[in-house]
Amino acid sequence: GSRASTSRATTRALRRRGRGADGHSPNAGIYVLLGDPLAASGDRAGARQAWERAIEISPSRHDARQRLGR
C-alpha cells in the first residue's frame, strides 16, 4: 500500500543522503535513522548494516550501538 511505498521512498532518500551524494562526508546520524524504518519493515539485515555503518563513521554513536544490542 501507500505506507510501504512511502517507507521505501524514505529509505532510498536516506541512503542517498547517508552516502554523501551531495558531496559531503557520510553522516552517521543518517545511517542510524535509515536503520529504523528498515527494522520496522522487517529488514533486520539491512537495519544492522545501516547501524554498523554509522559506527564505522562515528564509533561514539551510542544510539547505533544500542540498536545493535551492544
Q: What are the salient characteristics of this protein?
A:
single chain, 70 residues, mainly alpha, globular
Quick structural gist:
The chain is mostly helical.
Secondary structure elements and pairings:
Blueprint (H helix, E strand, L loop, with lengths): L1 H17 L9 H13 L3 H14 L4 H6 L3
Helix pairs in contact: 1-2, 2-3
Task: Kindly describe this structure.
The protein has helices spanning 2-18, 28-40, 44-57, 62-67. α1 (2-18) runs antiparallel to α2 and α2 (28-40) runs antiparallel to α3 (44-57). The protein has 4 helices and no strands. Helices cover 71% and strands 0% of the residues. It has 70 residues and is an all-alpha fold. The model has no long low-confidence stretch (mean pLDDT 80).
